[in-house]
Amino acid sequence: MSRPIILIPTDTCIRLIGIILGILYKIKHTNIKLSVFAPFNTLENEKNSHHYHSSMHYQDYKNILIPQDIPINHITSLLKSGQIETLIEEIVISYYQHKKYQYTTKNHIILIAGLQETDKNPYSLAINYKIANALDAEIIFVTEVDYHSHQTLQERIAMIHSSFNNKKTIKITGVIINAMNTPPEHINHDNKDLTQSQQSSNSTLQNNIDMKKLCSNGPFPILGYIPWSIEILSPCAIDICHYLKAHIINQGAISTRQIKSIQLCSGTVLSTLSLLHLESLLVISANRLDLLITFCLASISNINISAILLTGHDIINESVKKICKNAFQAGLPVFQIKNHRWDASLDINMLTLETLSNNIRIMKNMQKYVADNLTSQWISNIKLTDYKNYRISPSEFCNQLENLARQSNKRIILPEGEEPRIIQAASISAQRGLATCILLGSPNKIKSIAEENNITINEKIEIVNPKNIRINYINRLVELRHKKGMDTNIAKKQLMNNIMLGTMMLECGEVDGLVAGALHTTADTIRPALQIIQNKIDSVLISSIFFMLLPDQVLIYGDCAINTNPDPEQLAEIAIQSANSALIFGIEPRVAMISYSTGLSGSGPDVEKVREATRIAKNKCPNLIIDGPLQYDAAIMTDIAQAKAPNSTVAGQATVLIFPDLNTGNTTYKAVQRTAHINSIGPMLQGMQKPVNDLSRGALIRDIIYTIALTSIQSSMTCKSLY
Predict the structure, then answer these.
(1) Which of 302, 330, 566, 646 could form a disulfide with 571 if both were Cys (CB 3.0 to 4.6 A apart)?
(2) Phosphate acetyl/butaryl transferase domain: which residues (predicted)?
(3) pTM of the entire structure?
């Protein structure tokens, strides 16, 4: 099973690429299988920056897939129009496409790069939360510290914790502290420029924060603390030369000389001598030959000048080069840009540690540096943890529905074909390849409704006029129902109902499944199926389930629509049918038989019915993970389960909940759906030879699409019993 972990930056300009590469480097020689999912492109100035998660950074690592990223302007557009759920859906689809090409072993880690916070997208924290929730990902915060203060850092971490602590579904693994002890001149994230870097590298060792104290007192583990280092971040002269597209006058040691500061020199020779800091790039006008010669002489007099940048069109003649020969031979790089000093200064002011740190060489140095400052204990825990997650998130469930539906490629009849929501859902389903949808209704009316609602009817959709086909099913309906008093006149009348007509088409094998209910009650939708479609050979009854799309997982509720008061044998059958359905749709069945009592704490006929049903189900299916009676809270809440049923294999982690009767099941389903404001799919009928599924009359287009998908899948599995 894959284990998603999202890195969430909590400050502007935190570069996750360095952290990600450090983690990759740290686990490179372990048996941990890891891939990276980086869906965002937050760069707005491609001229001055490389792609921040460009695949070139991952060239030393296998199994790294960079998806087609989402530009920041697209994110902004969706958010402005209130389409945050559309954005999350795009990310989820991209994630599962990525996941499909990666490992599926239980030790597979998927490292997700969260959205970077900037002044123009302050909504990143909310988006990252939704991503973590949708993908059921563990969270690692990446933060920076503005002051050399233990108290400030502790308060910062506490604030991050409190902002997410009220999110019950969030799993926080820890925090990585980046750029610790940053020198004062680099604290302003928008001005990390090399023109301000002087002798600050030595200051990184001063006023160190007491990490042992912080780790012991913090709300969650510190997974890494990475000191700021000019040694790691400094570019070489060749990096700046390439960035400025400069002409090289003397190459010297251009590929190895590090630039730790940039000095703009324009005064007198005497006044510029104070600017000769160690490992500086000196910027002078090409017509200031006095400064050029002075600096060349200084470079061979034990003053460590990294390089010289000339600005302007003036050409350095051979006589000047001859004077500077010794400095050139000693390895002093000199390069020139044609811009004049003012324009050049603007370009140089754009030179920041942020800009240049995309350099491959810097990245290679950075990844080892970051790796050395990540805690080995955390890496060991990742390695040793046998990750188990019985939950499936709503996004993963819906993604699985679509994938399985595409594989099934079934024909689904939609009797309410003149309803705009149905037309739209059918078109989207056809476009996504989920099913071949057949709309029952007047072709002219359907096309007119589509035009009125700006719906483009997909060319793969079939439209069938019910007036032209009703006569075809009269005799068959009479044959099926003659023992119930059916005759030709009654059959003609009943076939005027499009749901009955669609059910007959299903019975005759002309379609593979039926979806209705957007305009009809559950009883009106299901009744024809109960009358016409027979039980599966191995099913003693027909039951129903709802897929409850809770914020952090999908639960199955059964039976909430069909069986009023099942006896123990019937209740056991409902549990087994529901477990089979769970497996079909990618949910690991852990069945809780719900009652008002847990274990042996209560007695009475209602409790005994549930206890007996549990025993029957266990005898029929020894491999089925089932327990009961269990109260609802003990079934799904770990802390309650530990107190009430510590030895249960189901309590606290149930995925399928079977209610003792229709009164309890339907009431609970409605209460949870309405109170928690969640979506549900269903009821889906079980135990029938062919699938018929009901829609809520308030169903959204999205709900209809997924019901079409699950009906298509169900039709492929009608002959398969897994328990």
Answers:
(1) 566
(2) 397-711
(3) 0.70
